[in-house]
Amino acid sequence: MFWKKKKNNDRKSDNRNLGQKIAELFGKSGSLEDFYEELEEMLISGDMGGSVTMEIVDELRERVKNDKIKDKDTVLKELRTIISESLKTKTIHPVKDTLNVYLVLGVNGVGKTTTIAKLSRYFKKEGFDKIAFAAGDTFRAAAIDQLKIQGERAGCRVIAQDHGADPGAVIFDSIASAKSHGEELILADTAGRMHNKSNLINELKKIDKIVNSNIDKEGSYRKILVLDATTGQNGLQQAEVFNDAVDVDCVVLTKYDATARGGLVVAISRKLNIPVAFVGHGEGLDDLSEFDPESYLDDLLAQ
Ligand SMILES: Nc1nc2c(ncn2[C@@H]2O[C@H](COP(=O)(O)OP(=O)(O)OP(=O)(O)O)[C@@H](O)[C@H]2O)c(=O)[nH]1
Ligand SMILES: [Mg+2]
């Protein structure tokens, strides 16, 4: 079951969630043109981004015109259909009887390390008990210790070298070590920042090559991008950069509990074709759920 966001009635009135605003818009009287304009503003302020919003609202106009739709309920239904057709989702499951490697990517502070612990809990529930964490963020001094803390919390072995070690070598050695321990899944932490962007990209490409040439079964290697739902359209730019570097498989949207928006999911799906696999909604180990488009749409459109 997808975790349902609390309604934001207790928040400031200008911070109502997008769904509440859209519901109010549909209750208003006024011209159709004003309605489209306000809808556009709302979707943009809900993090769907300018160009995706334009596409969606243009499509809505077309359908309303072509199908001669007159009542607001049907307009809302069409809007839901258009957004729903934009959403891409994916579930990921480790492949049996082999070592799976999941690289967890994302810029600083989005929730990578926390998400690694949550993912281990999720996959353990799926029956994968032998999970190790690999400390691939060797750039930031505290990163290795933070992963070790999460490893202890989640009951997973942490494979680490020293701060400053070559991340490619850490991942290579982690794969060898996990294979010799008979582990089924490595969740690898990676750096969110380096001296500069091209440095980061080059390191990721190197790691990607290493994993690709050291896995044994198709489908056992995944690149999971973590995006912070509270950063809005920045998330789209981050996704573009990481996707260009390594072809991201899916997204985990974190801190969904801390935002009244959520349109980023639509932008990522529609613009970059990257599916959303999970939503993080708190700091606890169980605060991660599979992304469920129907519940998401209920929430987005306050239905
Ligand atoms: N409310 C909320 N907080 C979260 C969620 N996921 C992570 N956090 C918090 O976000 C902060 C950053 O999380 P980390 O897991 O350290 O993020 P990171 O990407 O590993 O950060 P760096 O290692 O600095 O790059 C921590 O305080 C987490 O507890 C979430 O889904 N909801
Ligand atoms: Mg971290």
What is the beta-strand fraction?
5-15%
| Unreliable spans | 6-14
| Hetero compounds | guanosine-5'-triphosphate, magnesium ion
Q: Provide the CATH topology of the largest domain.
A: Rossmann fold
N- to C-terminal distance: 17 Å
Rg from alpha-carbon coordinates: 21 Å
Number of helices: 11
CATH superfamily of the largest domain: P-loop containing nucleotide triphosphate hydrolases
- How would you describe the shape? elongated
Number of domains: 2
Number of strands: 8
Describe the 3D structure.
With 303 residues, the protein is an alpha/beta fold. It folds into 2 domains: 13-86, Four Helix Bundle (Hemerythrin (Met), subunit A) (Up-down Bundle), CATH 1.20.120; 100-290, Rossmann fold. Helix content is 47%, strand content 14%. The chain is built from 11 helices and 8 strands. Strands 3-2-4-1-5-6-7-8 form an 8-stranded mixed beta sheet, sandwiched between helices. 43% of the residues are buried. It binds guanosine-5'-triphosphate and magnesium ion. Residues 112-113, 137, 143, 146, 189 line the site of magnesium ion.
Please describe the topology of this protein:
Elements (H helix, E strand, L loop, with lengths): L17 H10 L4 H14 L4 H17 L5 H15 L13 E6 L6 H14 L5 E6 L6 H12 L2 E3 L7 H15 L3 E6 L6 H16 L8 E8 L5 H13 L3 E5 L9 H9 L3 E5 L7 E3 L2 H8 L3
Parallel strand pairs: 1-4, 1-5, 2-3, 2-4, 5-6, 6-7
Antiparallel strand pairs: 7-8
Helix pairs in contact: 1-2, 2-3, 3-4, 5-6, 7-8, 8-9, 9-10
The protein binds guanosine-5'-triphosphate and magnesium ion.
